[in-house]
Amino acid sequence: MVIKKDTTLADAVDLAREAAESIAEPGAVGDHIGMTMEGERLATHSFVCTTPAYRGWRWAVVVTRIPRSRKVTICETNLLPGEDALLAPEWVPYVQRLQPGDVGPGDVLPYQDDDPNLEPGFQATGDEDVDEMALWELGLGRARVLSAEGREAAAQRWYEGPNGPFSEVAEKSREMCLTCGYYVPLAGALRSMFGVCANAWSPSDGSVVSRDHGCGAHSESDVRQTPRAAAPDPLVDDLAVEVVG
Q: Fewer CB within 10 Å: C terminus or N terminus of the chain?
């Protein structure tokens, strides 16, 4: 449907400019770009935005009038982006923006009701047999505990991280954490692969390490190796001469 141009609204350029200047910074309203009919007796006047931070944006002033009246009324005034306008990146929810290491003192992570890394845990029941089973893996009194997917994700992250077998310090070590006296195995399902380093001289002190990780602070690294026995004297005397008759 073609909307007929309203000459009364088209002539209201100065009124539209005044409306834009009333909300803009001084000098931020530039040349008149044109008018677009939005509906019957409803139009939008556009002006260039000269603010450097809003390159490609335009001031849009919507005007209207009642039937058989030549008085133009301002409906709304705002700033709209053009085709080449500089726009902010698409909004990403807070919980998806966070990365490991982003949480600092006083920060609180948003609650995720459907976190795939967690599953419901057991609550204290007062029955020793039932509560002992809860303590075996899930932990007594916790609302949620690690799911199998959560344990797998953590194990993969730890194993491929700086305290796994592929780090430079581990590759240059002659001994593994498994044989170190400072290696404290974890409890539960992760016990077979990981422990905590309790060596103050190790770069991994207080961190989760894989059993095949290693460093120069191994508890047995300073044990003196048994020296090899010296080779016996040669049995052949090159200075002796045997006369054969």
A: C
